[in-house]
């Protein structure tokens, strides 16, 4: 049985005067432990689809199942990591990373120790009593990752989490996130505009066509790249070859500017 299954997803946004068809007949599956990316032109519905998978939006038609159950019944099984870290500025780092556990009533001493240990594994020692404003952007995103992992979600959804970072920090975080997810056996979906990021981090790339978003093509990343860290993958000859293939395919479906 597939871990995550989308069947015939369609979504239309209605206003008082118009109806905008955002997604059209999207069906796909994701295996447990797989890292996949959603790639496509701006406005093709990638983030809308992510919100539907998370159970935040009800699709106009179709269904999403996580381990055979409706995502409505699996809301606490998903975790989000966004472009903005959304840490509460008035709370310490410790208070921020414990927030999800506190809300769910699972903030036990043993769990606290596990989460603080994860914070150290992320290279963030002795920052527990700091406030977000005292950390760099990359450090804040690592804190946000710890907060997301703390509740042990089965499915992680990343909506352009590195796009606001400088290039060097972005590359380091790609490696850190990839290694962390492999270590914990997490299933993840990344929404990105960055072809290189999608190739370096993913097992598969789902390429979507312009609005209404349709699944245009699926790229399977070769094992030679999948077995490397994202930084190492970027330096492999197959990376450039695949980059050109995806680039040309994306260019062929980009809407022409008037």
From TrEMBL:
Residue span, ABC transporter domain: 4-235
CDD domains with a match to the protein in the record: ABC_NrtD_SsuB_transporters (cd03293)
Source organism, top-level taxon: Bacteria
Keyword Transport: yes
Name this protein carries in UniProt: Hydroxymethylpyrimidine ABC transporter, ATPase component
Keywords for this protein: ATP-binding, Nucleotide-binding, Transport
Keyword Chloroplast listed: no
An example Gene Ontology molecular-function term: ATP binding
Pfam families according to UniProt: ABC_tran
